[in-house]
Structure formats: structure tokens, C-alpha cells
Amino acid sequence: MFPASFVAFVAAALVVRAAPLEKKGLAQVISNCNHDFAYTWDDGPYTAHRDINSAFNRNNGKTTFFMNGDNWSCIYNEDNVQAIRQSFEQGHMLASHTWSHAHLTQLSDAQIDYEIQRLDEAFVKIVGVIPKFLRPPYGDIDERTASYIQQKHGKTIVLWSDDSGDSTGGSTQQSINFYNTFANENPKRPHMALSHETEPSGYNAMYSGTVDNLASHGVQLVTVAQCLDTDAYIYVGGYQQRDSSWYCGGSWTPSPGGGTCVQTYTSKVGDTCASIESQFGLPSGSILAANSFLNCNDIWVNTPICIPRGGTTTTRTSTTSPSTTRTSTSSTPAPTCVQTYTSKAGDTCASIEGQFGLQSGSILAANSFLNCQDIWVNTPICIPPGGSTTTRTTTTPTSTSTSGPAPTCVSTYTAVAGDTCAKIEYNYELPAGSIQAANPSWLNCADIWAYTPICIPPGGSGCTLKISTASTDRTCAAVASRYGTTAALIQAWNPSWLNCNDVWPNTPLCVRH
């Protein structure tokens, strides 16, 4: 039986979400940062996800996404997969918000397992990590549920210190005012602020410049893990390739280790999770994450244990008695290479296998670190035995095009990681196919390298960033200085009524990138 004060706290927390939460009796639930400012987003991935990334990247800041698997959209949709990978690669933090945005205190233990494990499996497949952090939907948590999640799944449970109110009817202006308060705070204090990437008032406030304003006022924008001085993930492998298990809805059976088992180990007397991790060169926590049914300190003999990816290639030995030695190989034994191939632009595992007459899957098996659809140029690739003795060659067309913009470009955009032609066309409101047509034939629309100069042709709005001017933006030159452009372009990108020598605060302006 919980004390009356605790019951009253839980009831208040669920009804009044806009107030900072006081966690009485929940010693293991965190609601604020140790330092700096964590600007967090719930309920994604959703349509504004990439733009949120861009807003923080532009300000050298980081953000945290507490994501669902199947809520406003399916996490396995290809657009979502690519957006999540972009966030991960750019250093933003991914965390759990349960599979279906469930009220955790209303679920059985088995249902809680489903909500956590199915989403963990999706993160393993998409980016090769298991998030260490979980935010319960609706802030719905109690002592029993928190203890179960911490002990069974090893999650750090976080709520928030400040709620923008975007999910409870708050307007865009209220969200803007909410974040402006922290920008103007003096002295600056730690905050863990809550917004939702599915709520128009949340993402429209971002479009209006909340992130820019915080950064310009000296607020350090960091992830939840960074502001708590800890790690965000358990690393269990690289990006996986889509298969029939990448779906939402329907029935679901957990794949051991989220489908990342490279072998099954049969336990022996004296084994613990820590000893198995040491034996296979795995990071702490990875065995329990891949085998959630285990009691790490009391593993029964002959239990089949999933060994996830991420171990070393060095064989380790452990002595079980003075006269007996047990030897195990790691989870990814080193292959025998017949040669090393240096990758070229456009290579995939399939194209290399075709070039060397190898069976499908053999390149990834010999080079487990690879992302088969995005192999970097000049990567050394192990070529295993089994191919033809004659190397097949491919001819790369010679292009006489230069990297500069075509004469009809209205501007040149510098690509960032994760860009595709379709994304750039969307941002600039251009018709499909126009980016490929305006740029050299060597541009791979599905795999555009960061820092590539992209010609932006006529026909779109070009307004990739809609800002609201700050009190210090009294001229076009001041606005241009903040966004790395020129006063002349600020004037050209905006209506003719804009007086560049007398810009009013809170004026909506367009900035192109």
C-alpha cells in the first residue's frame, strides 16, 4: 500500500502536466538536468523531425527524441528510418517512449515487456543501439512500475522539469514565450523541457526561432544523457538491412537480441552476464539487453544465450579449474581474406559480390561493420574466399560537369548528412526530379555526401527556414550575421515592404540555405 501523499502526487502529476513534477517516493525517476538545457521532443518520429535536427545543428546544439514505434507513424517507414539515422549520426539522442504510447501503470508485466522490447528491437535494427533512457507516456509512472522497468529492462526513467503545454492546448505563441523565458533567464539554471514533434504549436515555435533564440542567449543545448553526465545507449551492432520483420501492427514475437544474435552460447557452471560479456568482448549490459529473461547472477547451466554483435575478434580463454581450460571465439570471428579491395563511389555489398563472383551475403559476413547500402569511398573491404579467379571490372562514366552551380541556379545549397534529392526538393518546394536535372549526372540522389554543393533551380519557394526576428535584429545586416548570409539576400528573399534599415522585432522572415 502506498502512502496517501504518494497517491496524491501521482494523481496530480497525471492531471496537471504543465507544472514541474515533484517525485516523492520515486528516487529512481529523474526530472531535471545536472547542468545546461535539454530541449526534448516526444511522440515522434513525425514530419518535422529533420527540420528539428537542422535547427539544432545550425546552432551547434543537440536535442533528444523520445520516440514511439507505432503511434503517429510507423517507425519502420523508410522516411522515418532515414530521419532517425540522420539524428543518430549527427549526435542527437534517441530514447524510448514505448512502442504504442501506452499507460504503463495500467499494464501487466508482460505488456510492459512488449512495449519496451518491441521498440528496443526497432532501434537495434535501425541504428544498432538499445536506448538506456525511457520517458513514460503521459508521465504515468508509479513505484511498482518504475522498479520493474529498472530491474527488468535496465532503463533510466526520466520525466521533465518544464512542460511547454503544446500537447494540452497551448498555442504557438505560448510555446515561444515558454522558451524565451529560459533564454532570458539570468543566471541560467538547468532545465529539461518538454515539447512534442507531433504538435503544431511545438514545431511551429521551433520554426519561429526558439532554438536560435536560446542559443543566441548563451543557453547550452545538450542531450538528456549529456546533461546527466552518462551514456545514452548500449551498442549492439551496426545498421541492419530491411527484411519482413520491419513492420508495425499485427502480432509480434521478440527476436533474441533484436535479431542481432551472431551465435548462441550454451551457459556453463559459474557463468554470469558479466563473465559472458568479458568472454566475448562485449560492452557491459549487452547480454541482459539481448536476453531479458536472464537473472544475470544466477544463470542456469545449459541455458541458450544470444550473443549479440559488437564483440571483439580476439579469442578469449577462461580457466574453469586448474586442469580444465574453456576456449570460446568471439561473436564475430575474423574471416580469411584473399585480398583487400578499396571501395569506390557507388559501391554496395551486392556490386562488390558481383565484381568478385561471390555469393550474396558474403561481403557483409566478412565485413560486419559495413552498411551495405552506404559504403564510404576508400574503405578497405575484406574479400573472402569463394569467388571467381578473375576480377570483374565496372566502368564509371566520365563526366565533364563541374561541381559549380548551373547558370540557372537561384542559389547553391551545401548538403548535410542524410540529404536526398527528394528531401531538398521538399524543403525548397520544388517539383520532383528538378534537383537531379539541375546538378551534374554524378549526383546520387539517394546518397548525397555532406558538404556537396547543390544547385537550387528556379521554381520553388526556397524558404527553408522561417524565423521570427529577435529584439537585436534591427537591420537586415544583423539578421544576416546570425544566419551566415548577406543583407542583400535577406532583402531579396523577403517581401518588398521589408525596410532593411528598420527591422521590427518578431517580424516573420524567410532565410534560405
TrEMBL record:
UniProt region (Disordered), positions on chain: 311-334
Any GO MF annotation of the entry: metal ion binding
Signal peptide coordinates: 1-18
Cofactor(s) for this UniProt protein: Co(2+)
Compartment(s): Cell membrane
Record InterPro entries: Glyco_hydro/deAcase_b/a-brl, LysM, LysM_dom_sf, NODB_dom
Keyword flag Cell membrane: yes
GO cellular component: plasma membrane; side of membrane
CDD domains given in the database record: LysM
Biased amino acid composition, Low complexity: 312-333
Top-level division of the source organism's lineage: Eukaryota
One GO BP annotation of this record: carbohydrate metabolic process
Any one Pfam family match given in the protein's UniProt record, by short name: LysM
LysM domain span: 263-307, 339-383, 411-456, 465-511
NodB homology domain sequence ranges: 35-222
Membrane topology, from the record: Lipid-anchor; GPI-anchor
UniProt KW keywords: Carbohydrate metabolism, Cell membrane, Cell wall biogenesis/degradation, Glycoprotein, GPI-anchor, Hydrolase, Lipoprotein, Membrane, Metal-binding, Signal
Cytoplasm listed as a keyword: no
Name of the protein in its database record: Related to deacetylase
Provenance organism: Serendipita indica (strain DSM 11827) (Root endophyte fungus)
